[in-house]
Design brief:
The protein contains 12 helices and 8 strands. The protein has about 325 residues and is of the alpha/beta class. The chain starts with 17 loop residues before the first helix and ends with a helix.
Length: about 325
């Protein structure tokens, strides 16, 4: 991803699900960044895991730690059909899918620590299959500065971390689409993006043409981030869906969180972002979570690491 163009109340009877009822949380580390155009987010899980696990335990969770997803490699692979490092990305997403699926099968709340955002293809594929087995709808709440709605044909870089929303909604390279149990992995009407402020040139007509729901920073400034999160989940509440949150740290303003791979100015702050995530969790529907694109080498002060741990502890605290 290089040059970009700027894009222009919940019901109280919501059914509860894993986030509110489950006491066991599976920390899934995925130190992989070959889906991105930079190196650094592979260091995210190690920077977060120990302190985050301790904070979550203090917050009431039984935390299961099995280390990093086995079989991941950061050895570059060939560009295939416009997708950089395709075989490595597919293998990493498959490994994440298996680890996430195993956690769900045990009745755990999977919290994926990335790694670049291409890995969400694997986690969401696992959640979608889990929901299909339960006969339950799946909604995805995607926090990101970028639309991540490229295909190999529209992407200026070929980096798969700019493609996961397109993949889960049924467009992209066949090897990536095959990670899901069906096509699309998630109905596009059940995907909502929050915090977008930078879109690649050929993404712009694609977003409009397919009707992808995108809540921009302009809308956040007008209405508030927590209110928009509630709006995005209104239908999910109505049908008692499983909600998957996929959170890219670059949704935050670089002044607040410099430790990300692809910072974009004019982002959200920690206070409003924590409020929005808390609003989503308070529906009782969030049953899985991705925390992606933390690049600790981009912030030697450690500010980003510490504040992310504080944010996640506040959002996931039991009884909070």
């Amino acid at each position: 991803m290089d040059e970009r163009h700027r894009p222009s109340d919940l019901q109280p009877e919501a059914a509860e699900t894993a986030a509110s009822e489950c006491s066991s949380l599976a920390l899934i580390g995925a130190p992989f960044d070959l889906g991105s155009g930079y190196r650094g987010s592979a260091g995210g899980p190690a920077a977060l895991r120990a302190s985050l696990a301790g904070a979550l335990r203090q917050g009431g969770w039984e935390v299961s730690e099995s280390g990093d997803v086995p079989g991941l490699t950061n050895l570059p692979a060939a560009t295939v059909d416009g997708c950089r490092n395709l075989d490595a990305v597919v293998a990493a997403c498959r490994a994440v899918r298996e680890a996430t699926g195993a956690a769900l099968a045990k009745g755990q709340f999977p919290l994926l620590l990335g790694g670049d955002h291409s890995l969400a293809i694997g986690s969401i594929a696992a959640v979608a299959q889990h929901c299909a087995r339960q006969g339950r709808p799946l909604f995805v709440l995607w926090f990101d500065a970028h639309a991540d709605f490229n295909t190999p044909q529209s992407s200026p870089s070929g980096c798969v971390y700019g493609m996961p929303v397109a993949i889960i909604s049924g467009e992209g390279h066949p090897s990536l689409l095959a990670l899901g149990h069906g096509r699309p992995i998630v109905d596009i009407s059940r995907i909502a993006l929050i915090g977008v402020r930078s879109v690649d040139p050929l993404e712009v007509p694609r977003v409009a043409g397919r009707g992808l729901r995108v809540f921009t920073m302009d809308e956040i400034r007008r209405q508030g981030m927590a209110k928009l999160a509630k709006q995005a989940l209104a239908e999910a509440v109505h049908v008692g869906a499983h909600v998957h949150v996929s959170f890219d740290l670059d949704v935050l303003d670089p002044g607040e969180a410099p430790g990300v791979g692809l910072p974009e100015a004019d982002g959200t702050n920690f206070a409003e972002t924590t409020a929005a995530l808390s609003a989503a969790l308070q529906t009782g529907l969030v049953g899985s979570f991705d925390l992606m694109e933390h690049s600790p080498t981009a912030d030697p002060s450690g500010q980003t690491t510490q504040r992310v741990i504080e944010m996640m502890t506040a959002v996931l605290r039991k009884g909070g």
